[in-house]
Amino acid sequence: MTGPSLTASIHAVLLKELRVLFLSPLATVFLAGCLMLGGLFFTLGVSLTGEASLRNMMPNLGAMLLFTLPLLTMRAYSEEERSGTLELLMTVPVGPLAILLGKWLASMVLCSVFLAFATSWGWLLAVWGDPDLGVLATSYLGLGLCCGAFSAVGLFASSLTRDQMVAGVLAVCFLLPSWLAGAARDLTPAAWQPVLDRLSFTEHLRGFARGVVDTADVLWFVAFTCVFLLFTWQSVESRRWR
User: Fold this and answer.
1) pTM of the entire structure?
2) Rounded to an integer, what distance in angstroms lies between the CA atom of residue 187 and that of residue 151?
3) Cα-based distances in Å from 16 to 23, 164, 172
4) Where are the domains of the chain?
5) What is the C-alpha to C-alpha distance for residues 142 and 233, in angstroms, rounded to an integer?
6) What is the DSSP string of 36-57?
7) The pLDDT value given to residue 58
8) Of 146, 145, 147, 121, whose CA–CA distance to 53 is shortest?
9) How far apart are alpha carbons 1 and 216 in whole angstroms?
């Protein structure tokens, strides 16, 4: 498949997925839930610490995305397979790669809408305090990378089953070890802490919350995303041989 054809196919799948998301209550529920919980974490973080920063709420926001993003991606493949439309997609000259990237980009568009609304927290900090704008920018960059990684995991889980709820639970289960690694680091011997830090997405988010764009943190999220997108592509591609 040539470059322009692949681009056109991705664009077609992207538009189709966005129509499905925004014409259903799913996008509204996702945005409302994330903004409500995020606003609660923001209020508690600022009121308890008095800091004009998102640093203290970043781990909580990461945990929130762990449980909410699978609800957004759980229908991506499972609903199409259950309704029989996935087979139809596979027979037209679109290809599994275009389908995968189109679905992932659709979830990223919705995550971008959430992050756009979430910039209101930064504006509030600027009005009532004196935040470091560079630190705020890196914080939102970290959240964007986290959204990309979690969306890839959700797509992989959705490609494994026809049941949407099972797909959502699977995605959470795939992400839980990384979250628990961060929660358990203070309870383990010091020799184990560097290993748990590398496995924990919350620890990688902390660097962005401090205003540090560490190449290792960026590569961790990018590699995490690419690995699960590859797993998803292989899972969908294997359907042709069943």
Assistant:
1) 0.89
2) 29
3) 11, 19, 26
4) 3-241
5) 25
6) HHHHHHHHHHHHHH--SSSGGG
7) 85
8) 121
9) 33
